[in-house]
Amino acid sequence: MRDMQTIRRENLRKLAELHGGVVALAEKLGYTNGSFLVQMCGPNPIREVTERSARRFEEVLKLQRGWLDSDVGPPAPHHVDRMVIDLVRAVAAALEAAHIDVSPSKFADITTLAYEHSAAAGHVDEPFIASVVGLLAK
User: Fold this and answer.
1) Which residues contact 74 (CB under 8 A, 6 or more apart)?
2) CA-CA distance, 67 to 114, in Å (whole number)?
3) Which of 4, 8, 84, 110 falls 20 to 30 Å from 120 in CA-CA distance?
4) Cα 36 to the chain's mean position, in Å?
5) What is the pTM assigned to this prediction?
6) Containing H/E element for 107?
């Protein structure tokens, strides 16, 4: 049987993977960099995932209380990542500004392209979205 620290550490690693890495997760949790989380869930952890930290992470990420302590798979997504919301709005705004109507499947394609670029950039890149939408007008 695995101990609580091992379970918490593995679940924290799952969360980091789901959120795009330790640095991205750290930012979502309000830290300026990922060093604190790396100390808990990196390849050579030197810090325990304390009860206080576990509960705070669950609260900020809107996970069920005790999720980090449970020996289950990744959390069911019950909230939408803020960047996805902002990205969908940016695509819709760019299309509206260009007076372009697209089918739902084309909207999905543009949003997917914008998401891949924005995820790599680490933020919603509105000029990139505008340039992609501009290609539709030609």
Assistant:
1) 14, 15, 18
2) 32
3) 8
4) 18
5) 0.53
6) helix 104-121
Report DSSP letters for 13-68, one per residue.
HHHHHHTTSHHHHHHHTT-SSSHHHHHHHSSS--S---HHHHHHHHHHTTPPTTGG
Q: Token pair of 136, please?
A: 């539709």
Contact 137, 97 (CB under 8 A): no
Judged by DSSP in three states, 16 sits in helix
Residues 123/118/89/105 CA torsion (nearest 10 deg):
-170
Structure tokens at 13: 């690693």
Q: 85-132, pLDDT tens digit by residue?
A: 888 989 999 999 999 999 999 999 999 999 888 888 888 889 999 998
- List pLDDT tens digits, range 18-38: 888 899 999 999 999 999 999
CA dist list (Å): 100 to 60, 85, 92: 38, 20, 10
> What single DSSP character describes residue 43?
S
Domain boundaries, the chain: 4-69, 82-137
| Residue 65 to residue 117: CA distance in whole angstroms | 34
